[in-house]
Amino acid sequence: MALGQNRKILQIVGYQNSGKTTLLERLIACATKQGVRVATIKHHGHGGVPQNDQTKDSTRHAEAGARITAVEGAGMLRLSIQQERWKLDDIVALYNIFPIDWLLIEGYKNEHYPKVVLLRTEADEILLQQLSNIVCVIYWHVQPTTDYPAFSIDETAQYLDFLMTEMRKD
């Protein structure tokens, strides 16, 4: 993909400990095995500037095969660029200079990009009414009542195949 061209973007969202990073690792590994150049952005949504020990998720993204990783929290983008506040669209724009095919985003629930929603508990289903651009749902225990494609967390091959197909669509 040429510099500055649009690339496929997908968000992975859910509450803390819902499996976002593990899902991203699996998707990154699957995509890179097929020659897809992947980059990631992680939202440190637990308050404050992400410390070096709090960048472990972006390190996991890199170990899975992501070419570029970043973590953002409280205005600190760990590519080590400091400004008052970072909007997701501004970070995405930075990535336009890199030759990547897919940009996978962990977090930023309320942004407008296509997203996978992880539901660990039945109470988490409220996200399905609050969020936009849902591509599919991955659930832990009880299958939600929804019109979106839904996969059990244990159906790894099925949801990875679905997501790879979705990301390859024009």
Automatic annotation (TrEMBL):
GO BP terms in the entry: Mo-molybdopterin cofactor biosynthetic process
Signal sequence annotation: none
GO terms, molecular function: GTP binding
Domain of life the protein comes from: Bacteria
InterPro entries, A to Z: MGD_biosynthesis_adapter, MobB_dom, P-loop_NTPase
Molybdopterin-guanine dinucleotide biosynthesis protein B (MobB) domain ranges (all copies): 9-138
UniProt protein name: Molybdopterin-guanine dinucleotide biosynthesis protein B
Record organism: Metasolibacillus meyeri
Recorded name of the encoding gene: mobB
